[in-house]
Write a structure and sequence with these properties.
Helix 8 runs parallel beside helix 9 (about 185-195). About 40% of the residues lie in helices and about 15% in strands. It has a single domain (about 5-265), classed as TIM Barrel (Alpha-Beta Barrel), CATH 3.20.20. The chain has about 270 residues and is α/β, with parallel strands linked by helices. The mean pLDDT is about 95. The chain is built from 12 helices and 10 strands. The strands form 3 sheets. A 5-stranded parallel beta sheet has the order 6-7-8-9-10. It has a 3-stranded parallel beta sheet with strand order 1-2-5.
Length: about 270
Amino acid sequence: MPVIDAWLQHPTVRHSNHEMFDSLRRWTGRGLLDEPLPVETTVAALKAADVEIGLSAAWYGPQGPLISNDEVADFVARSDGRLRGVAGADLRRPVEAVRELRRAVEELGFVALRMVPWLWELPPTDRLYYPLYTACVELGIPFCTQVGHTGPLRPSETGRPILYIDQVALDFPELTIVCGHIGYPWTMEMIAVADKHTNVYIDTSAYTARRYPTELVAYLRGRGRHKVLFGTNYPMITPAQALEHLDALELDDEARELFLIGNARRVFSL
C-alpha cells in the first residue's frame, strides 16, 4: 500500500547540527553532519517504505531560517516527485510572514504551513500566529504544529493540546490543524480535542508504530480512524523504522488505508 509521510524534513547542515538537537542525537546515535545530506538519500529512504509523498517542511526560528522555503523548493524539485513543500514563516514579522506564506503556496506550490511553537517559545494562541491562521484559511491549506513534550532542549509547555489547540480551533473553526508528535504525555487531551473539532487531526511523527500509546491505537482502530495520519519526523526516524511493527496494531483494511494515505490525501488535498 502506498504511504504519505505527513511530517519530515530534508535537513540542512545548520538545522541538523543545531545545539538544541543534542538530545535527539544522543537518542538516535547519529552524529553531526559533515556535509549536506543528498536529496537522493531522502528519496531512497521514502522508496524503501513505499512512501509515495513526503511532506518536507521549512524551519524558521528566532535566529532565522534553519531550512528556508527556497531550500525546500529546491529539494522538492530534485526529488523526482516524492517530496511536497510545507512552508515556514518568521513570527516576528507578521505582515512579511503572511506575504512569504502566500508566495510559498501560490508560487512554489507548497501544500501547508508548519510552525513549531517550542522553537519560538510562544504558544499557538499568541497573537503573532493569528494573521497566519487567517491566511491558511484563505489559501485553503492546513496549519501543522507540534503537540506533546519537546524532545529537543527547549521547554514543553507550548505543546499542551487543551490549553492551546482547543482555543485556536474555537477561534478559527475553518482552519484545518494537523498536530504532529501524538501529544504524549497528553495523548488523551489530544484525542479529546480531535474529537471535539471537525478540522483537528493527529499525526504520529517522532514515534515508531510499536511506541504508539495504547489509547491512540484504540482511537486509530475505532472512531478516530478518519483523524490520524502517519508521519515519521525523518531523518530522526526513517519510514521503514516507523512502519516496522505496523501489523502489530491490528488495523482493519479501512483503518490501515486511511492512516497510511487516505487521511493525508484528503487533508492536504494531494
